[in-house]
Specification:
The chain contains three helices and six strands. It is α+β, with helices and mostly antiparallel strands. It has two domains: 2-71, no CATH class; 91-147, no CATH class.
Length: 148
Amino acid sequence: MIIVCPSCGKNFDVDENLIPEKGRLLKCGSCDQTWFFNKNVGEQTKPLINKPIKQKKFLYEAEDTSKSKFIEPIKPGSELVKYKPKSNFTFGKFLSYLIVSLITFIAIIIILDTFKDPLSNIFPNLELILYNLFETLRDLILFAKDLN
């Protein structure tokens, strides 16, 4: 049975046997939203609270007011579906950040080299710094060629 969190919209595949006929209080493992789900009604009610339940709460009334229902609080670790966030670090992301950083560095060097005459009034040693940078890059290229 697919159950959708009414707060964040995350889908959870839950075994039907875990939800009794009278319904059950569910807690989203992603956003910690708590709501009551009744599989006989076939639709989910609106979220009851935004924070985890710490004590017994009056959640709904039966048709007969003498038989009001109280539901036990959810204990940490007893959720039907436990959500573990995935690591966002991948080699592809690392490589893309590295490529963007290199392109940005090269673009800054090109801009500084293009406008070195007007910028030399602000930065007096800019031409010397750019010359040293170009020589260092040339040495790195020669070093890489010598490795082959």
